[in-house]
Specification:
five-stranded mixed β-barrel; single chain
């Protein structure tokens, strides 16, 4: 088993290129939350020539719609949303500087091509572990689209968030290489 890489954001192009599909990472720094409704609004704003509610340069976006925080908590359960719902918007977001994406599930070929073009990285978070992932979230601030409820844009500060690099900046895809490696190990 490979060592766990401790990553401190922002996710610069140089840092992104050091990550390889299959790497286990502990992510620390500022990330932003958004799902499909928020992504749609951001892409519409960009099409109108407007600025986004946060600086997308080297940003990492967590595809999550957290549950409300209970008293004494920073955030409620915060498990990943299926990433395919953002595939229509991810290439646009990467074209304006966003580099990291956190979610679960496969990505379309056009997203992988945009990742290769813009040195993007797709991190996988474990679905069903939202309560555990929430413990890594130390700060949460609502920054835009409050009317979207759980899908509003939030700025989070995370410490040692456990993730796996699913697709790296070269387009290597753990969903493809992992099963192949496993089958080859059985021969």
């Amino acid at each position: 088993m490979s060592e766990i890489k401790k990553i401190t954001l922002p996710l610069t192009k140089e840092l992104a290129k050091t990550l390889k599909a299959g790497d286990s990472v502990l992510l620390t720094g500022t990330i932003y939350t958004s799902r499909d409704a928020g992504h749609k609004r951001m892409c519409e704003a960009l099409a109108r020539g407007e600025k986004l509610p946060f600086d997308p340069e080297d940003a990492t976006i967590y595809y999550v719609g957290p549950s409300p925080a209970k008293p004494g908590q920073v955030i409620g359960s915060a498990g990943p949303t299926t990433s395919g719902r953002m595939d229509a918007y991810a290439p646009t977001m990467m074209s304006v500087g966003a580099r990291g994406m956190i979610g679960k599930g496969a990505r379309l070929p056009e997203v992988i091509e945009a990742m290769k073009e813009h040195s993007g990285v797709y991190f996988g978070a474990i679905g069903g572990a939202g309560a555990l992932l929430a413990k890594c979230i130390k700060k949460c601030e609502l920054i835009a689209y409050e009317d979207l409820g759980a899908e509003a844009l939030r700025k989070l500060y995370v410490e040692d968030m456990p993730l796996v690099v699913i697709i790296d900046s070269e387009g290597n895809n753990l969903y493809e290489s992992g099963p192949a490696d496993y089958l080859n190990s059985k021969n």
